[in-house]
């Protein structure tokens, strides 16, 4: 394995570092102090659009090599390893802002891999060159189905040329501001995972509503939203992949597999985010210890070294998962290992940072205190640490995937 970065990747990381210092951390601190997500009309989002961000990787057929019209984030084909390094750098400055950023977001991968050409044109097309910030979101988590994604209860029933959706979703990022939501639902609870499908629901569709932005202890820059679907009707062509896939007799678990592929791809990213937050804690802890004359204490030096060693080990495991993805090798175990380990390491770092601050941490105005609240979510999102350990353990003893 070779994790050396080329000149182009180095330039991307330098640009991300400069942007993070000048724009990301300040707006993240602002959102945290005000206790609310970054507003849709905030100048930060306008700057993102002006930079060419918030766009889709999709290109209409015949225009894939058109070069000049590609957004800044897509001009270079990024390896998974490069994407992980950038995810780590962005989270170093503020992970919540990274989730709040406009763009097709989490469901883009589902649409690229499972959507038909008409759906890509219709739902990703507006993200080709947006004139304003736009969002999309993927909605799976429910009040009774979090880590066990196979237990979702939102129903989808066919009624002529429409699908009717009923249910409730929770903790969905950017849901109330999304132009469209990709909703995971079951067409037949008796079929378990085989009955799951995903549906495009556009904002403003009757029956989609009850949006409630949850109060969170950390990551306040983006909205985590609950909402309901009450006899929400969408056209038959809003089924991800279209009706042809539904009638084809192919893999009956395709809808569930597409959703799981999104989470599997996201786990090393969450690991990278955790490492980025941990790095920020390490740097702030070192600065605080130096400023207050604590570096002469053996225990302080020992804990700082321990923090650095654990973060480096977690990064190597994360990069290995990314390298395997680039080599098109099975990386499920490494993806789960990296996510479980990095989230734990990030929390360990933040806990020590708070111990080092002492009474200063109780004031609620130090960056480490914010990072302590932010990093906790890394063990929860994209499958909890317990779920990651179950995945690894099942593979270890040879149980079915």
Brief summary of the model shown:
With 401 residues, this protein is α+β, with helices and mostly antiparallel strands.
**What class would the helix/strand composition place it in?**
alpha+beta
Could you spell the SSE succession in H and E letters? HHHHHEEEEEEEHHHHHH
Low-confidence parts, pLDDT < 50 over ≥5 residues? 66-76, 245-250
- The coarse silhouette is globular
Q: How many whole angstroms does the radius of gyration measure?
A: 21 Å
Q: Based on DSSP secondary structure assignment, what is the total number of beta strands?
A: 7
Architecture (CATH level 2) name of the largest domain: Beta Barrel
Number of domains: 2
Fraction in helix: 40-55%
Strand content: 5-15%
Q: Any idea of the CATH topology of the largest domain?
A: Butyryl-CoA Dehydrogenase, subunit A, domain 2
Description of the structure:
This protein has helices spanning 7-34, 43-50, 80-100, 108-114, 117-124, 242-247, 254-291, 298-326, 332-357, 367-375, 385-396, and strands at residues 136-139, 155-159, 162-173, 180-186, 196-202, 208-213, 224-235. It has 401 residues and is α+β, with helices and mostly antiparallel strands. The chain has two domains: 1-79 and 97-252, Butyryl-CoA Dehydrogenase, subunit A, domain 2, CATH 2.40.110; 255-396, Butyryl-CoA Dehydrogenase, subunit A, domain 3 (Up-down Bundle), CATH 1.20.140.10. The protein has a four-stranded antiparallel sheet, with no helix packed on it. It has a three-stranded mixed sheet with strand order 1-4-5, covered by helices on one side. A hairpin with a 2-residue loop joins strand 2 (155-159) and strand 3 (162-173). Helix 7 (254-291) packs antiparallel against helix 8 (298-326) and helix 8 (298-326) packs antiparallel against helix 9 (332-357). The longest helix is centred in the last third of the chain and has 38 residues, at 254-291. The two termini are 26 Å apart. Mean pLDDT is 90; it is low at 66-76 and 245-250.
